[in-house]
Please model this.
Amino acid sequence: MLYAVYVHPGDETHAHGVTLPDFPGCFSAADRWEDIPAKIQEAVELYFEGESSEVPVPTPLDRLRDDPQYTDGEWILLDIDLTRLRPRTRRINVTLPEPLLERIDAYAQAHQMSRSGFISQAATKAMEEKC
Model:
């Protein structure tokens, strides 16, 4: 999934600093630009080894770009492999109408997702839209 990443460019003696606004407290650094994607993936994976359990929906770059805390740097969009994250999960029992369940399963399969992944993503998106 594509996430906005803010890079504070480094120089010959300082690494490039990387901030991930959708993952509070998650940051990284890389000496070379081409190392940034791997360093970010590693940082996000470590982030989920802690207490965080919900994978956030990406914030649109348009909303982040005007934030005054991000100055003198550059934005990039990076595809983070969410399948490598291990957030803490909990099994629940949910009752749904059979036709809805069939539609959910068809959609999830067509988008290479699990039923749980789709329901989790849809619920997160619905809650963010209400805020």
Residues 1-88 form a domain with the Double Stranded RNA Binding Domain fold (CATH 3.30.160.250). The chain has four helices and four strands. The first strand starts at residue 2 and ends at 8.
